[in-house]
């Protein structure tokens, strides 16, 4: 019987640091990513692919800023939908092409996914997620007055808009995704953490100005879709204690209790490894099934138990 895995790939798997963010470069990078995902399919996995969109949303915000006097800027939920659409198209196309080369007949589909958050989530009172370009103080304060946006000074580099990052609670399209999986379709879903929405007092779904952490949303999807494994692909082969220090130590297999102890000891940075570890803990706690963190290039070896960091109950 096939295993079902939710595989989370970062936005940098589409746009490499320092590389021009052209459509051609994105297709080229996604083709490479697709080859590693195809390895999993050949290993008898069913997969749900989730992806980041940080660099892509940042680029859209910059384009909107340049054109703001000609075309009114769109809100964050619409930008999330835009990136889900075009990144989903690219991933579906390149994965389908790779599978065709390997003579594997599978349908691949992208589902624009809305993720429910609580309108009373404390994150809305304390926006912390930086998005978009840097501004000088004068322009930032002007936009705060005109648009009601919140800006914060960012480590001497300038002022950046910050938006809430609420906790994901449910996926509106979960039953559609389940139906596709049951019909042997490889699914791309929950891109960029999903489009953040709330359910209002009338039961209507409404988008909100927020960004959901991609790894937290991916862990949620893995839980509600009853995945056998949750996998986060990142820029390192294993998780490390004392990362980038002379005494750094690679982690192979760790329990939830060990992972929580390492968090308390401050081993994982807030902006990088911490949300990944917390998302894995959340999945493993609720499902009793394992989570894996590794580098995309080492994925096959990690699935065979040769590398990567595995978190178990």
Automatic annotation (TrEMBL):
Taxonomic path: Bacteria, Thermotogati, Thermotogota, Thermotogae, Petrotogales
GO MF annotation terms: carbamate kinase activity
One Pfam family in the UniProt entry: AA_kinase
Protein's UniProt name: Carbamate kinase
Record keywords: Kinase, Transferase
Gene from which this protein is expressed: arcC
Chain ranges of the Aspartate/glutamate/uridylate kinase domain: 3-295
Keyword Membrane applies: no
Entries under CDD domains matching the protein: AAK_CK
SUPFAM superfamilies listed in its UniProt record: Carbamate kinase-like (SSF53633)
Family according to the record: Belongs to the carbamate kinase family.
